[in-house]
Amino acid sequence: MSASNLRRELEQARGTIRLMQDELEETNRGLVALTVELEKRVEARTAELRLTQEELEKTNSELLHLTLELEDRVAERTAQLQSKNEEVKTMSQQLWQAAKLATMGELAASIAHELNNPLATVSLRIESLLELCSPVDPQHHTLLIIQQEVERMASLIANLLQFSRRGTSRVSTLNLADEIEKTLELIQYLLRDHNIQVVQELASNDLFISADRQKLRQLFLNLFTNASDAMPQGGTLTIRGMITQAALSGAAAEPRADALSMVVIEIADTGIGIAAENLPRLGEAFFTTKPVGKGTGLGLAICHRIVQEHKGSLDILSEVNHGTTIRVVLPVRSEAGGGFLDES
Ligand SMILES: Nc1ncnc2c1ncn2[C@@H]1O[C@H](COP(=O)(O)OP(=O)(O)O)[C@@H](O)[C@H]1O
Ligand SMILES: [Mg+2]
Description:
The chain has a domain at 174-248 and 256-331: Heat Shock Protein 90, CATH 3.30.565. Helices cover 59% and strands 15% of the residues. It is built from six helices and seven strands. It has helices spanning 3-132, 138-164, 176-186, 188-193, 213-229, 299-309; strands at 171-175, 196-202, 208-212, 235-245, 261-269, 313-319, 323-331. The chain is rod-shaped and about 190 Å long. Residues 222, 225-226, 299 line the site of magnesium ion (MG).
């Protein structure tokens, strides 16, 4: 090969190399551009992903929060349901008690009714025996005692019958002292068993009120038995009665003729008293602190209703371990004398 040929080929090869170099540079530039573009996209995507992750984390924590809240609510609701369940259970127990009591009451009434006739016979026979017996005869005294005891039984039965009798309320003018006495007679044995002394402090023996006799006695009976229950170790049951003038007309020096006179009756015991937290619940039917089988929780609810029907009021004052005073205020005998009670 000649020198000129060689030079030409060398020139050619150089040209090819330059071309290839150019192409390579071109490709390189393209690659750099691509890399930059790719990096940009990756960055954008990363930012997007980061945002999504943050959102996910937020949602997650919110969900966790909600779950906890829900769990709390479920627990709370379950507890509520459980206590409601308990309430329903005791309530049905008490209802059963009340039903049993009602049956017992009817039974007692029918027995009292049955006893009434033979007792009347006994009473009549004793009377004739007493007529035949001379007062100096030693048997005379015995017969008198029998007569007294029979009378006591008869009055007890009459009271029992009166309690069980139902029907329209009928208001009449009643002597407070008599009604208290008759009710006390009914539970004499209970008071004696509990070693309870009864003190009566009536402002007068002629305190008259307008009331339904059965209901008034039922009111007293409930309050006396509550007082007796509160004094299992004995104590004093004080019954006070006085007249008060309801403040209708301002400063009247003399009681006005049209002023509404009320009778205040206080039944005070020296018993266990009532815990402050129980005071607001005392009007509730079925509220009792007494063991199952002993209390029905109906007594005070009935008392409240009776007092309301008579347009009166009932207040409870109590101090734990010192005793309880129930203050009942009822209107004094109305001019009309009788009539029907407001039974709404
Ligand atoms: N004189 C009282 N002394 C103490 N607690 C009383 C007295 N009277 C009523 N209570 C309370 O009020 C509750 C409700 O009384 P009550 O309605 O008569 O129902 P019960 O006598 O059947 O329990 C009683 O269980 C008792 O806790
Ligand atoms: Mg009671």
